[in-house]
Fold this protein.
Amino acid sequence: LGIDLSGKIGEAAVARNNDPQAVFVVTGASRGLGLEFCRQLLERSQGTVVGCCRDPKNAAELSALQQSAGPGRLRIEPLDLLLDSSVQAVPGRLKAQGLTRVDMLLNVAGILHDPDHPKAPERALADIDRNWLLKTLEVNAVGPIMLAQALAPLMKQTTRGRKGATELRAPGVVASVSARVGSISDNGLGGWHSYRMSKAALNMGVVNLSLELKRSNVWAIALHPGTTDTGLSKPFQKNVKPEKLFTREFSVNQMLSVVEALDESHTGGFFAWDGSRVTW
C-alpha cells in the first residue's frame, strides 16, 4: 500500500520538526529541488538545515536564503559527490560547527544531461559513452550511498537488544530522490540508459540501507518527484502536458508530506509524490 497524505503528519515527524536540535542535510542545495527542500525545511522545522553544494561561493540563491533564514538556521557546506575526500569531510565539518547528529539526509543532487555530452540522455545503445555512464552512476548512485555511509554514525541512535539502550529522539530518515524511470518493471520504453541504470542502482542501495539502518532507528526510502520544472527536466518539458509539469514548490511539498507521513512499516519503500508506491 501507499502512504495516505490526507491525514495528520506522523508522530515521528512532529517530534523531529519541533526539535530545535534536529539537523537536516540536503545535497544539491544550490538550485532546483535541493534549494526548495532547504526553503521548505526552514519553514516546517525548528532545527538546523545544512545545504550542501559543489560551489558555495557561486550559490547566490542559497546564500540569499541563508541571510533571510536568521542566525544559524541554514548552514552551507561544500560537497562534491565525485570526491571521496569531500564526502568524508562532511561529518567533521558538521561537528566543527557543533552539529553532532543528523536527523534527516535528503539525497537530492543528480545529473541527467550535460553540455559536454550532447547525446545524454542516450536514446539508443549506440549513444552510450563509457565516461558519461560512469559519471552518472557516481553522482546518482555511488555518491548518495557513500554520503549515507559517512553520516550514518551521526544518524544512528540505538542498537536493538543492547541492554539499557534508549531512543532519545524521533527516527532518522534517509530520503533519496530517485525517479520512476529507475523502475525495472515500469520500463516499457527503453532509452535513457545511464540515467535509468543509475536510479535502479540507487533504489537497490536504498533497500539495503533500510535493512541495515532500521536496527539503529533510521528509515530509508526512495522518492519519485514527478516531472518538475527544473534545469534537469528543461530540455524535455515540451512533451509534458501542462498539468503534469509540477512546480518545485509543489513537488517538494508533496515529497516532504510523504516523509512526514512515514512510519516504520514504510522503510525500504519507493514512493511517488502523491504517496503511491512505485514498483521496483
Remarks:
- The beta strands are 23-26, 48-53, 74-78, 104-107, 172-177, 218-224, 270-272.
- The chain has a mean pLDDT of 93.
- The longest strand covers residues 218-224.
